[in-house]
Amino acid sequence: MSTTETPPAPPEGAVRSRGPGRRKRLVPYWLLLPGILWLLVFFAAPLVYQASTSVQTGSLEEGFTVTWHFATYWDALGTYWPQFLRSVGYAAVATVLCLALGYPLAYLIAFKAGRWRHLVMVLVIAPFFTSFLIRTLAWKTILADGGPVVGLLDHLHVLDVTSRLGLTEGHRLLATPLAVVCGLTYNFLPFMVLPLYTSLERIDPRLHEAAGDLYARPVTTFRKVTFPLSMPGVVAGTLLTFIPAAGDYINAELLGSTDQKMIGNVIQSQFLRVLDYPTAAALSFILMAAILVMVTVYLRKSGTEDLV
Prior knowledge:
By secondary structure, this protein is mostly helical. The chain is built from 13 helices and two strands. It has a two-stranded antiparallel ribbon.
């Protein structure tokens, strides 16, 4: 006679409780669904389409077909490598200038502004209420030949120095590398200030007091306490400034000349004027890959694990 006993059946309430528990576990995924769909429709699908376009051959009249012509990438890079280097150089200089201008401003807002903090923050954000194009056109007026800025710099012989350095040409600012870099710095400065301010505001003021109690000078306190703790803001600000600046084309279009064209201008021209869609798509992918590599190396070298 078998001694095996049938296990007791679970209580009825326990069986019914599985359904609500499973639904609760699925709630986060349902909340993520709109964002995932948005990324699939407006990011992944266009990315796949552009990848397909970059390996096509043909013309606008005859149509383009996928022939897996990867030589387009080498041809595009071999033809437009000066614009790539120029874009990286302009973006890097603008990022350094934004950091040099934005860090003292963010420090002032976080620790010294007091009751004026919100007003200064509004002044920093205020340019966002104006179109990017209009702001750049305003710089075209500011740097115009015969204007007060050019007259003052010429009177101080600053233009003579910048002309020797290759930043300007003669006694004018427009259609020079300096004008493009100034436009990039102005337009992307808020993207540097906001992350820096957020990072500096989180620093406990008691750490500064403790450094003072240990007889640390203000410079030492900044070097040993403030700046290391603000590194997440520095990394975030430089990324938010460098990435869009490298792909920008409006500043070079309005403030520069044909000698200051960036890779964004080339891509825009290939898409809308030349109508060479494979080359434009290949340039876009090369730019994206180059920025991705530089950002990855930068994050690893910076040692900011919070952003990796």
